Amino acid sequence: MPDLITLLNALCGFGAIVATQNGMLQLSCILILIAAIADGLDGSLARYTGGSEIGGALDSLADVISFGVAPAIIIAVNMGNKYFTLLAVCFYLVCGILRLARFSTSKYNNNFFSGLPITAAGITVAAIILVSNGQLQPIVMEFGSIVLGFLMVSSVPYMKIRGKEKTLPLTVIFAIPILSYFLHTTHRSTFTLPLLLIMMLYIISPIYIKNREKIHEQNKQHN
What we know:
single chain; mainly alpha; Four Helix Bundle (Hemerythrin (Met), subunit A); 8 helices; 79% helix; globular
């Protein structure tokens, strides 16, 4: 069952690419959000059922499609395939691939990822485009692609979001923009704003974690 959901993740990524090529920009971003839900669900099921021998490799392949290739193509097509845009999205994609390769071979940590997860990077790209209705200047997406790329290959610690008290509210926040698309509402960008704000907070969360650890160390020394 987890592997089937992982394949759904990959199919959503492929669908996002096809939608982009056919001028359906918002649908392509919505499919990335659906892929992200599938990515979280297959991981939860794999931890519960034990998963399969190919589950980890399958998950990485699906993530490359949905959160690496698809966002890169969305940005490239939406921004007009300019030279620097292509360089920026190539950098984003290469960093995403390296991030997944490192994750596959690194020691497991229960609490933190090393570097920004590629899933979070892909969600951020989709949320930015949905909130802006694709009207951002190319320099914004180019700069964003480079920043996300650097964060993915960095050693910055990012929290793993687990537990029903965290995942259930996040699922609702993801579901709202998805439902707004299929219900043809006119305020889709507004409904996506909470998701974008959460992704921005997650991206800068290591600053808070570092400060908290520093305060904790200072308190230990005083005690």
